[in-house]
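Many introductory courses stop at the sequence. We go one step further.
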Amino acid sequence: MIVRLLSMGVTGGGESVEMKKERGVRWHARWLGRADVVGAMRTGAAEVAACEDVAAAPGVAGRPGDLRPADAGRVRSAARWMAWPARSGVGWAVLRPSDVVRREFWLEETALRADPGVMRFEALQHLGSAASDVAWNVRAGVPQGGRVRVELRSVAVRQAERACEQLEAAGVGPERLLDPADVLEAAWRESRESAMVEPGLILFLGEQESVLIWLDDTARRVRNLALGVRSVVEEVTGRRAGAGRQSERGASPADRLEVARDEEVSVTLAARAHLEVSRLFTTAGIQMADQPARPVGVWVCGEAASAPAFVATLASRLGLPVHAWEASLGDAEWWAEPPVARRQEWNAYVCGVLRLWRRRREDEAIDACFLPPVRSGRLARRFAHATLMGAAALVTLGAIPPALHYHHLAKDMADRVRRLDEEVQRLQRIDTENRAALHRLSAERSRVEALHELASARLRWPRFLGGLEQCLEEVEDAWLDGLHPAGDAATRSSGALHVRVTGCLLASETGPQSGALDELEAEPRVQALLAQVARLPSIERIERERFARTEPGLLRFDLELALAEEALR
């Protein structure tokens, strides 16, 4: 597998690296220089000549022969290089940070779970009329308090087309256009053994543009900075122009690196970086419940990352630990290394791209790219070739007899399924009837158990009935109509018998005509009856009482009593 990686901006613009997986185990990478001359170096002989002649004419920008021996890494054998460019591969490009426009919005977690399409709808609402002119994707963070932060990223189609054209000029088919923040985050996570829990900052210093990434366990925030090492070096060398110092514009990459490590340049660059980090703290909405969140450290990568003065100055201004971070290629190695001034940047890019390559189908956020819609559709249809269509037609014709055979089998199976469905429906009806019969049987069993309980206590009823009769005599003008078992055996409390007592009381004709208990509870005869019944020793409690005036002068009562078995013995 061969992957052509093209950088559009952070490393100076238009430089490319070719990566190859050797024997399916190890990756090798070689730096090719600027992409606009890669198309002219496609033949193996031209590649070998350019790589072996490290002292070639310096007027051709970007060729390996343009590099001095001190600036370029080692070059492997020409025999192994000649076989590489002869095969085509896939093209990945890392866009410029300024090409990626970022927006953030919040979604309710419940709405996102109910309909994942709401994220696309909200993204289109934020893009508005520009949706047809950009290639975009979204990245959702971890839910916080029932809400999800969504990062919307878009790239103008014309910028994406420009990157695709450069990949095609290099002889590879465009497959992905990557966000530089995704690549840098992937490289940084690859270099760490544990997952990120505490907040941290990644500051990538490029030659023309920089990227600032806030990372924590819930989401990330990315800021594209118009801060470049070249602009700071030009500013400092401009101030020194009167002293006769060399201008950076005519300096080689190695000379520029030495200037970038100058103390004055480092201090100026640290002051600009401190301003951008402080602005991120104050404007990005990064805060906790009661105080602003503080990162555990700042990891810096780029041309000035290894300058001691820059690291020390930035650490003193921020009051935070600042680490000079250099990505490790792990199981990959360089066949032809980039210049010293580009090495840290390209190490981070290659490390990040290899991690994304290994995990490109695990997560949508990792799999995100910015190919124009037309090219995305073309890439999806790249296997629709005429030869493949003819082969598909032959396969289709050869599959007709088996298809007819299996069609008959499917029809027979459908008939069997239909008959089984009818049988299942019949059995379901029988099951429903059985369940209803079981319910009725349970109710009857409860009634029988209640009658058995009453019958078992028949020798103790005279004491209870005598007490009840005495209560009615003390109330006067009261008589019983019925005595029945009450309640359900499944719902009664253990250790008590429930009986229902109905009867009548003579009451005055003046009074409320309603049968509601709350309107009759003030009736003196009602209170007297309830008090007498409650004093019986065989009655544990009165479960429910109902009174109704159905006729003038006649007050009917219906009481449900809980009898204690111990009191009836």
